[in-house]
Amino acid sequence: MLYALLCYNSEDVVFSWSQEEDDAVMARLAKVQTGLRDSGKLGPSLRLMATTTAATLRKSDPPVVIDGPFAETKEQLLGFYVVDVENLDEALAIAKDLGEANPGGSYEIRPIRLFLPGAQFEPQASKEHA
């Protein structure tokens, strides 16, 4: 069963971390991710840029594009993981491990109904820095 682990936290907190603090959190997360990858349970994961870089498409007639995210929440969606596990209990255990590595905020755990992985690609930013 595929589950999405949606990572929520306060941007004000996360983006106020020093480079050293951010690197330490990312190193702790990498340890959890390595174990998941080695066990074949880790699918796509990513870290999103700040909500100030977002846009929202309101599905009205006609559609309307709004600058920024449009969610009623005190925490922002900062990234997500896709994991392939047996059940919700296993997904929760992984979320707990990730939470210990990166305290604060929350993880929303949701089963994935449809997964269309698409083609493999190299992000433009990686190509520019190559």
How would you describe this structure to a colleague?
The model has no long low-confidence stretch (mean pLDDT 84). Helices cover 33% and strands 28% of the residues. The longest helix has 20 residues. It is α+β, with helices and mostly antiparallel strands and 130 residues long. It has a single domain, classed as Dimeric alpha+beta barrel (Alpha-Beta Plaits).
Characteristic terms for this protein:
130 residues, Alpha-Beta Plaits, alpha+beta
Please sum up the structure shown.
The protein has helices at residues 11-14, 19-38, 88-101, 124-128, and strands at 2-9, 42-47, 55-58, 64-67, 76-84, 106-111.
How many angstroms separate the termini?
A: 36 Å
How much beta, percentage-wise? 25-35%
Total count of domains: 1
CATH architecture: 2-Layer Sandwich
Largest sheet: 4 strands, antiparallel
